[in-house]
Recover the amino acids of this structure.
C-alpha cells in the first residue's frame, strides 16, 4: 500500500545564520578591542551597516538587544552611547517590573535583596581584609557625618553598602545589588517623597560594620536583617 505523502516527515530547510546575533557579537568585540568606557559613543548606524555588510533592520535589532540589556542608550540627534562595558563573555541580567504599584514593587525587590544582602554581609565577615575594613569604615564615617548634619544620607549609605559588597571579593554581589538599585533608583532614593524613609535603620549600619570587622557572619546577617526589616516596615507604613 502506498504511503500517504502527508504522513511523511517534512525535511525542513536549514535556518539561515542569525545575522543579528553576529552583529551583537561583532559590536561586543569592537567595544572590548577599542577599550570603550561608559559614556563613549558607538559608531553611527550607517557606518556599522557598511562595515558589517548588513541592512539597517539587522543593525537596529542588535541595538535593541543591547538597549534591553541596559548597556547602551540612543540619544536622539546625538548617537548611541555605551552605558556599561560589554564583551562576548559579559553576562547582563536586565531587571523589569511593572512600577504602577510602587508599594508592591518595593516589597518585591526587598524580598530579593534580603537574601542577597544577608549573604553578602556574611561572606564579607568571612573574607574581609584589613584594607577592606579601612574602606568600609571610611564610608561609614562619612555616612554618619552627613546623616547627623542633614538628617539623611542616601548616596553615602549606598557607598557604605557597596564597600561591604566589595569586601566579599565576589563581584557578582556588587553587580547584582547595584543593578537592582539602579533599576529602581528613582523609587528607592526617597520612596513616597519621604526624606525620613528608613531613617531608623541608621544606627544598625555601625553594628553591621562591627560584625564584619569581628569576622562574625551570623552577627552580620542579623544586623543586615535589622536594617531591611525597618525598610519593610516603612514601605508598609508610608504607603497607607
Amino acid at each position: 500500500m502506498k504511503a500517504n505523502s502527508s504522513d511523511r516527515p517534512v525535511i525542513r530547510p536549514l535556518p539561515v545564520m542569525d545575522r543579528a546575533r553576529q552583529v551583537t557579537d561583532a559590536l561586543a568585540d569592537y567595544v572590548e578591542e577599542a577599550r570603550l568606557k561608559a559614556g563613549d559613543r558607538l559608531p553611527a548606524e550607517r557606518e556599522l551597516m557598511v562595515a558589517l555588510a548588513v541592512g539597517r533592520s539587522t543593525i537596529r535589532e542588535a541595538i535593541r538587544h543591547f538597549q534591553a540589556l541596559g548597556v547602551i542608550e540612543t540619544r536622539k540627534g546625538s548617537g548611541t552611547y555605551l552605558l556599561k562595558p560589554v564583551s562576548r563573555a559579559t553576562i547582563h541580567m536586565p531587571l523589569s517590573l511593572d512600577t504602577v504599584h510602587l508599594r508592591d514593587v518595593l516589597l518585591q525587590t526587598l524580598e530579593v535583596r534580603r537574601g542577597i544582602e544577608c549573604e553578602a554581609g556574611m561572606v564579607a565577615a568571612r573574607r574581609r581584609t584589613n584594607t577592606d575594613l579601612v574602606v568600609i569604615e571610611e564610608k561609614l564615617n562619612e555616612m554618619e557625618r552627613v546623616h547627623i548634619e542633614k538628617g539623611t544620607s542616601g548616596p553615602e549609605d549606598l557607598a557604605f553598602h557597596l564597600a561591604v559588597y566589595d569586601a566579599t571579593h565576589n563581584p557578582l554581589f556588587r553587580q547584582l545589588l547595584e543593578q537592582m538599585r539602579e533599576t529602581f533608583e528613582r523609587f528607592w532614593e526617597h520612596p513616597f517623597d519621604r526624606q525620613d524613609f528608613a531613617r531608623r535603620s541608621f544606627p544598625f549600619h555601625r553594628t553591621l560594620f562591627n560584625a564584619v570587622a569581628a569576622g562574625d557572619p551570623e552577627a552580620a546577617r542579623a544586623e543586615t536583617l535589622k536594617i531591611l526589616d525597618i525598610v519593610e516596615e516603612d514601605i508598609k507604613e508610608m504607603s497607607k
Summary: The first strand starts at residue 72 and ends at 75.
